[in-house]
Structure formats: C-alpha cells, structure tokens
Amino acid sequence: GGVGWGGVWGGLWGGRVGRGGVGNNALADKIQIWGFDGDAIVFADASLGAGWSFSTLDSSCLEDESINQIKSSVVNFLNALPTELEIQFVQKIEGGNKRTLEEHKKLKSDMAHHFSMKLCDDRVSRLGILDNKGELPKQVLYVFIRYKPGARSSTQKTGSKLFTKKLSEKSYWISEELRKFERIVRDFEASLQTLDLKARRLKQAEI
Question: Is the CB of residue 185 less than 8 Å from the CB of residue 143?
C-alpha cells in the first residue's frame, strides 16, 4: 500500500529520496511516482497528480460532422485547462477480449435465422483465435494531471517552499496545497463530462 503525507513528506524533509511505499509497478515507475495520499499521487519532484481511465471511442464509422464535433470539444476542453496544470495521455494496448466476445455471442437470438446464428458463431471463433495469438489488441486510455505547488510564481522553483519553510509551517502548507489540488481535481472531472466519455478516477492500487 501507499503512505500518507507523514511518510512521503517525512522523507523529503529529511532530504532522503525514496519510493514512499510504492510497489514495483511499471506505470508508476514510468511517471516517477514517490508515493500517495489517498488517491492523490505525489511525484518525486514534490508535485501532485491524479489519473483516470477512459472508455475509448471508435470513430471509424462516424460521419465527418460528428468527428468535427468531437475535435471541437477536445480543443475547447484543452484550452480551458488551468495554465499551472500539466496533462498527459497514456494509451495501453493489451490482449484479453474473451469476455467481450462472450458477451457478443450472448446477443444472438434463438429466433434468428440459422444463417445469422452460424455467422455469429464463426465470427466469434475467428476473433477468438486472433485474440489468443495476441493479434486482437484492446486499447485502454489513461489521462494524468500534474500540479506543481507554487507554479504561479515565476521567481520560485517548484517545491522550493517545501524545503525552505520550517517544519511547523510545512505541514500547514502541504495541507493547503492538497486541498487546492482536490478542488482542481473536481473542476477537471466536471470538464471531462463535456467530452461525453466515461471516465473513472484511478485508485492507488491501480497505478
């Protein structure tokens, strides 16, 4: 499991760089995670972050007008993000579509023509063979946001307050930054709703 602010920031206060209780996870290693406070991510540079998983949208059969509407929504969404917020999209491609194929097979009706039923069975069988060979990838989309405390100040480096304040002041400052970050998270989730995508915030154990 992860650790709270006492464990994560205790290492920073003492000048020690450590993993803060983060397990050996490939995704966590790639985005340089130090530790967690609840579902809030604490990065190695003292910035805060959060992640979401998305249901992907298949636009291959959409008309040009629908595609342009999606593009416009995405552009508006990105332009509305706070300037102190960094955003990163991560796409995970993996196999394992057995459940989806089984759900598709259940959709066939006993009242359907035998030719349609045979066509469905053949399709599921053919796709199942491809899935077993790893030739039917499943796409999972993630988005991560990252907020650097003190990012609005051009004269102060990120995280500098953490290392210059007295111990009694740091605890209050960290709590204030965490509350501010959670407000940013709520605003970000509200903005996500304008994209009509199903998004779910990632739990600590998923990162």
Answer: no
